[in-house]
Specification:
Shape: elongated
Helix content: over 70%
Distance between the termini: 66 Å
Number of domains: 2
CATH architecture of the largest domain: Orthogonal Bundle
Number of helices: 8
CATH topology of the largest domain: Tetracycline Repressor, domain 2
Strand content: under 5%
Radius of gyration: 19 Å
Order of helices and strands: HHHHHHHH
Number of strands: 0
Largest sheet: none
Oligomer: single chain
Low-confidence stretches: none
Structural class: mainly alpha
CATH class of the largest domain: Mainly Alpha
Amino acid sequence: MKLKRDVRREQMLDVAMEIVRNQGADELTLGTLAAKAGVSRPIAYEHFSTRAGLLLALFKRLEENYVHWLRSALRKAPTELAAVADVISQAYFECLAQFGPEALAISAALKGTKEMAAQQRLMLNVYVDLMYDALRPLSDLEDEHFRPVCVGLLGAAEALASETQAGSISQQTATSVLTSLIAKAVADRPGKSF
């Protein structure tokens, strides 16, 4: 039975994720994907063109799931700074835990490619916009400082995620620390000297 194009693509992405999970990102090629997914090589190439295209499609899928998850969590959050900070932190680390080391393996396999740099830049802007929209009403910081604060908080989240993935800190500790950093950064008052 012939599957619709978008259904076939999703099925192949599911198989590709299994390959990364079970064998590592280095083992993921379009040929391996075609064989495991039960499709011809031309079909795999038609959907993804290159190995980098396949890896990027997997990365985008993970990122889109996180954005969806965070948006859903924020819609249900109370409009208090501590609650919103906690929702952002929990969503970040729960999503990371759900996707496990596969996300880091995919990201590492794409390091240095133009496509990955462009995707990371795009997603940074999406994440910053989400944080900005959720936290802006809860802060007295001036606009010129607020967006860079969100960028810095994302950098802190990535550093904590790296430590969590390495097993240096627990997910619970990372979530607690990020929640605290968000709350303190957003509650900070303009003109405060350090």
